[in-house]
Amino acid sequence: MREKKVPVKKQPPSERIKNFNEVSLGYTEKEAIQEAERCLQCKNAPCIKGCPVEIEIPKFIKEIREGNFKKAFEIIYEKNTLPAISGRVCPQETQCEAFCTLSKKWEPVAIGRLERFVADWARKNNVYPSITKVEFKNYKVAVVGSGPAGLTCASELAKNGIKVTIFESLHLPGGVLTYGIPSFRLPKDIIFYEIEYIKKLGVEIKTDIIIGKTLSIDDLFGLGYKAIFIGSGAGLPSFMGIPGENLLRVYSANEFLTRINLMKSYKFPEYDTPISIGKKVAVIGGGNVAMDAARCSLRLGAENVTVLYRRTEKEMPARREEYENAIEEGVNFEFLVQPLEIKGDKNGYVNGIKIIRNKLGEPDESGRRKPVPIPGTETILEFDTVIVAIGQRPNPLIPRAYPKFKLGKHGNIIVDENGFTGIKGIYAGGDITTGAATVISAMGAGKRAARAIIEYLSSL
Ligand code: FAD
Ligand code: SF4
Q1: Is 156 buried (19+), middle (13-18) or exposed (0-12) by CB count in 10 A?
Q2: How far away, in angstroms, is 6 Cα from ligand 2 center?
Q3: Which ligand gives the minimal distance to the CA of 260?
Q4: What's the 108 CA to ligand 2 centre distance in angstroms?
Q5: How far is CA 53 from CA 86, 97, 398, in A?
């Protein structure tokens, strides 16, 4: 028995920092079978408990082992309509893989890589899951937002014979998958391929429509939608509230990544959105968003990119794999530092950050040890670009336009365990209810809400 996962081939760091192509090349058939052979086929399948969409993990791995990739795909697809996406970006290390029996002694089975392999195999071999037409009462449902929560809710409803229209404010569907996560981690053609299949289930996607502006919630009921699912995400960037955040070349990670991913600013002037970046870039934060912003900066030609994080490496919320990729690519890390002020030159451009050094104190409410500033350690670090990646909050547009929702302290819509908002016919899920979380938790919420909507429609 191999103690470690079968390694996956990647683009070499010196090559990949010059392009936006995918870093991980995925398993070959032989490698996937080898990795699948590590699975113990545990009777109690603890790995499934760690999967918010309850994929039958040992079953699909068994099919890979026997070379039945089509069957493996059908098993995954029954529970997950976005497998090539979740296989790439899910934090498996804290979900299914964290529960894997092997992880007690060795590395867990590489469940995410196997899921990705199967989804990629199906795409390359034009294998589509069969669609069984289900009859349901002639009701239609509106879904607001086309991120993973909205897409999953819509596809579950469509699979159950319900007509669904997704309303998306941007010109392309996918939510953060499309405008936030860079293509070197999640190529756009893969997102659009999986969305195309959701359209084949009968889901209609209307882009460039802002619910709360172009159409109100009441307009949607007026148009005959019997239920509404809100999956409008956490697109509101947080700032630090320190002097200098309005200087030129200070970006929120949200704006920075949207310009790159959605507007393709790295292809300016072929595409018409530019991005101005200097040579020495600071990225503030320690999550996936910070890693993405840092790695994009390198690919845009920055000579030196440093992530400034207020705690230590151990408390960093970024996926380990992406942190390691960032190091391999040459991103620097400064731990236990806290920005106090962004400094600028006479023309209003950033030229440095005043920071103070921290030490770790007692654990806070998140269970992580709190950063405590050390007096007298203030110093100025030289940078010409600053990207703030310290988190996003729930998108306030819909709650403001429809004040009947109960809101949490961060502006999140409060729902019960099935996504019900307490308002007849209105459900919500994903980052708009939890604050910034994960793709798979948004998908799980979309799925639970779809089940509750079906029950509600059945009672009408
Ligand atoms: P979103 O994906 O935000 O989608 C919401 C959609 O609603 C958007 O398309 C938005 O335009 C639309 N919308 C908003 N308001 C309206 C309106 N009024 N009318 C119509 N449409 C509207 N998670 C992981 O699991 N792994 C990762 O590696 C990872 N990396 C990330 C990297 C970045 C840069 C970011 C920002 C997030 C990352 N996440 C990651 C988090 C993950 O992407 C989110 O948790 C997830 O996308 C939330 O899904 P959602 O459907 O709730 O919302
Ligand atoms: Fe296989 Fe690990 Fe799941 Fe056991 S827990 S069935 S070894 S993937």
Answers
A1: buried
A2: 15
A3: 1
A4: 8
A5: 11, 14, 27
- 173-206 pLDDT, tens per residue? 999 999 999 999 999 999 999 999 899 999 999 9
Question: Is 437 near ligand 1, meaning CB less than 6 Å away?
Answer: yes
Ligand 2 in contact with 352 (CB < 6 A)? no
Write the single-letter amino acid at 362.
Answer: E
- The SS3 call for residue 363 is strand
| Residue span of the structural domain in which 27 resides | 13-124
Residue identifier of the C-alpha nearest atom 45 of ligand 1: 438
Angle between helices 288-299 and 320-329 (to 10 degrees): 20
**Which residues on adjacent β-strands are paired with residue 379?**
355
Same domain, 158 and 222: yes
Is 4 contained in some domain?
A: no
Using the mean position of ligand 1's atoms as its centre, give its distance from the Cα of residue 33 in Å: 33
CATH number assigned to the domain comprising residue 76 = 1.10.1060.10
Q: Which two tokens stand for residue 76?
A: 């995954």
Ligand nearest to the CA of 35: 2
Q: How many domains does the chain have?
A: 3
- pTM of this structure: 0.94
- Same domain for 367 and 244: yes
Indicate which CATH number applies to the domain containing 265. 3.50.50.60
Residues 350, 285: one domain? yes
Whether the CB-CB separation of 229 and 143 falls below 8 Å is answered with yes
Q: Which residues contact 439 (CB under 8 A, 6 or more apart)?
A: 82, 85, 86, 89, 90, 148, 176, 177
Residue 225: strand pairing partners? 140
Tens of pLDDT, residue by residue over 415-457, are 999 999 999 999 999 999 999 999 999 999 999 999 999 999 9
Q: Are residues 244 and 369 in the same domain?
A: yes
Same domain, yes or no, for 381 and 403?
no
Asked if 203 and 258 sit in the same domain, the reply is: no
Look at residues 90, 124, 158 and tell me which one is the last residue of a structural domain.
124
> Of all atoms in ligand 1, which is nearest to the CA of residue 182?
34
